[in-house]
């Protein structure tokens, strides 16, 4: 039976996992998961539901040399379990790329230590794509098209549009 765990200690469990990533050893990372651990990974559509499949995932993922940092964390503590959900960012040492993601870690106390029982990770949704600015001439051309005109100064709108109102 575990002693009580604090919110800071729950957040510290991420460091154990992140340190395992730093070894670039998929076995050390897979060892951070419980016997019944489930990984719903970021860069694979396949749920990983046993040690071998979790190790397999990290065999490929570790080639990127990832190191994570928690940006936002929300902790819940229960009896013999705890959870940390939020936003993290990975720096990929192999490429220099940074990737933000949402995460959920649910930990259980197993064999004298806290292990990951459920880990879900997903890349942050892409930002809203903004339209390119439009010039006054393009606005005039669009108005002309709307009214049935087919001649455009900009050349960008070369198709005629029939008047919608008859």
From TrEMBL:
Organism per entry: Thalassiosira oceanica (Marine diatom)
Segments forming domain Calcium/calmodulin-dependent protein kinase II association-domain: 7-125
Domain of life of the source: Eukaryota
Pfam family name, one: CaMKII_AD
GO terms, molecular function: calcium/calmodulin-dependent protein kinase activity; calmodulin binding
Protein name: Calcium/calmodulin-dependent protein kinase II association-domain domain-containing protein
SUPFAM superfamilies linked: NTF2-like (SSF54427)
InterPro entries: Ca/CaM-dep_prot_kinase-assoc, NTF2-like_dom_sf, Steroid_delta5-4_isomerase
């Amino acid at each position: 039976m575990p002693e009580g765990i604090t919110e800071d200690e729950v957040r510290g469990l991420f460091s154990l996992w992140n340190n395992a990533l730093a070894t670039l050893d998929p076995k050390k990372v897979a060892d951070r998961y419980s016997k019944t651990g489930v990984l719903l990974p970021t860069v694979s559509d396949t749920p990983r539901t046993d040690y071998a499949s979790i190790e397999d995932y990290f065999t490929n993922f570790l080639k990127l040399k990832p190191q994570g940092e928690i940006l936002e964390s929300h902790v819940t503590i229960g009896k013999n379990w705890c959870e940390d959900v939020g936003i993290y960012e990975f720096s990929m040492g192999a490429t220099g790329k940074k990737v933000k993601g949402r995460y959920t870690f649910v930990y259980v106390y197993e064999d004298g230590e806290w292990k990951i029982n459920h880990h879900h990770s997903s890349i942050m949704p892409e930002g809203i794509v903004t339209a390119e600015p439009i010039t006054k001439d393009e606005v005039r051309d669009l108005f002309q098209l709307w009214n049935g005109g087919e001649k455009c100064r900009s050349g960008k709108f070369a198709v005629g549009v029939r008047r919608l109102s008859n």
